[in-house]
Every structure is written in C-alpha cells, then in structure tokens.
Design brief:
globular; alpha/beta; 229 residues; 9 helices; eight-stranded parallel β-sheet; binds D-xylitol-5-phosphate; TIM Barrel; single chain; binds zinc ion
C-alpha cells in the first residue's frame, strides 16, 4: 500500500522541462520570458559539441544571456566529451542542474562529486543502449537520471519504445532504496506517450519539438503539465 501511495503522489507532481533546442533562436529572449510565465517547471538547455553527438547547438554565452530572464531551474544537458572540464563554467553561466552522459564520463563518480561540490544538482544521462543497471552502485550520488528516449543530437526524432521498460526498472531501483533521485525522460516526448511515461515512473518530461512546433507553446506546456499517469 505504501508503495502505491508513493507512486501516486509522485505521479501527480511531474515536472515539465521544455527544451529550447527546438525554439526560434532569433527570439530566444521572448522564448525565455514565455517559459518563465508558463507552467514550465524547468528550462532544459541542450549543449552539443559535434563530437559526442553529430550536432552542435549552443553553449555558455547563450545560457549566461538567458539567466537574468528567469529564476526557474536551468537544467543543462551536456552532450559533450570530457564534460568534467566545464563544470565550474556552467555553474558560473547559471546552471542549477548539470547532467553529463554516462558514455562520455570515464570517472563519473568524480564528476558527480565535483558538480555537487560546485553547488549544482548532479545528473547522469543514459543513451538508449545503456542499461540502467550500470547506475546501481552510484544512485545515491545522483540527483537526476536522464533517460534518452532518442539517440541524442537532434530534436524531432521518433520515441524509442524500450524507454518505458527502462523507466520502470529505474523506478524500482530508486524506490527500493527510498532515494530522492528523479527520473527525466528526454526525446520524443509528446502528449500521446506522456501518460505512459508518468505511469512508468517518470518525474520530469523534457519536450522540444512537441512544444515549439505547436501553434501555442505555453498552452502545449499546460497540456503536458496536466496529463495524469
Ligand atoms: C536531444 C536533446 C533533447 C531534444 C528533445 O539530443 O537532448 O533535449 O531537444 O527534442 P524532442 O522533444 O523534439 O525529441
Ligand atoms: Zn536534452
């Protein structure tokens, strides 16, 4: 019974983190203000280096420029090699949560410690092929696990269905140990899979193209926020 209550409680409080990758970069200030005034909980900011992933997006100066426009959480997703080199820089740019990829981190435990030491929450992202079981021994050191629903690098890709099962497995691993670690799903999230992801145990939904390709992004954020798992 206890477990059921905990799951229901969490599911009624899922967070929405729109990814600005799909937004119009000529109007990034207006977008930041729109997100600030919307029901979005976090800003999801995708940093790509053209090495870890085939694409290059934006980096430190863009995040610093947006920082004064909202006091909402800046959830920075680093899709870069050697992310440990930039931990302090992203803190200074205004990141509240800094997520590094498991696949890009030779000394993941050290990087997570350095992120927390710098005063941020520490996140780990897993590519679709990376099993959640690899995090078993360090879950207590992780504030956020970002499960990729697509291969990272681009917005607008098709959701990979095995993500549901990964979400359930990770939910069980976290709940068995009664940890506060959050599960975030990134890539391919839309209104038609959000409920199933929340029911599987997701706490945070990232949505890029579904929000920014819609005629009224603020209303689409509201729609995602009010979905029940
Ligand atoms: C993909 C990024 C995502 C992306 C999601 O590499 O990490 O955050 O913006 O975009 P959609 O929601 O369009 O799949
Ligand atoms: Zn992302």
């Amino acid at each position: 019974m206890q477990c059921t209550f905990a799951a229901n409680y969490r599911n009624m409080n899922h967070l929405i983190a729109p990814s600005l990758l799909a937004s119009d970069f000529t109007r990034i200030g207006e977008t930041a203000t729109m997100l600030h005034n919307s029901e979005a909980d976090w800003f999801h900011l995708d940093v790509m280096d053209g090495v870890f992933v085939p694409n290059i997006s934006f980096g430190l100066p863009v995040i610093s420029a947006m920082r004064p426009l909202s006091d909402k959480i800046f959830d920075v997703h680093l899709m870069i090699v050697q992310p440990e080199r930039y931990i302090i820089d992203f803190k200074n740019a205004g990141a509240d949560i800094l997520t590094v990829h498991y696949e890009a981190s030779t000394h993941l435990h050290r990087s997570l410690g350095a992120i927390r030491e710098a005063g941020m929450q520490a996140g780990v992202a897993l590519n679709p092929h990376t099993p959640v079981e690899l995090l078993e021994d360090m879950l207590q050191d992780i504030d956020l696990v970002c499960l990729m629903g697509v291969n990272p690098g681009f917005g607008g890709q098709k959701f990979i269905e095995t993500t549901y099962r990964k979400t359930e497995k990770l939910r069980n691993m976290i709940d068995r140990r009664d940890l506060p670690t959050r599960i975030e799903i990134d890539g391919g999230v839309k209104a038609d899979n959000a409920a199933q992801l929340i029911a599987a145990g997701a706490d945070v939904l990232v949505a890029g193209s579904f929000v920014f390709s819609s005629p009224d992004p603020a209303n689409t954020i509201k729609q995602l926020k009010h979905i029940r798992g």
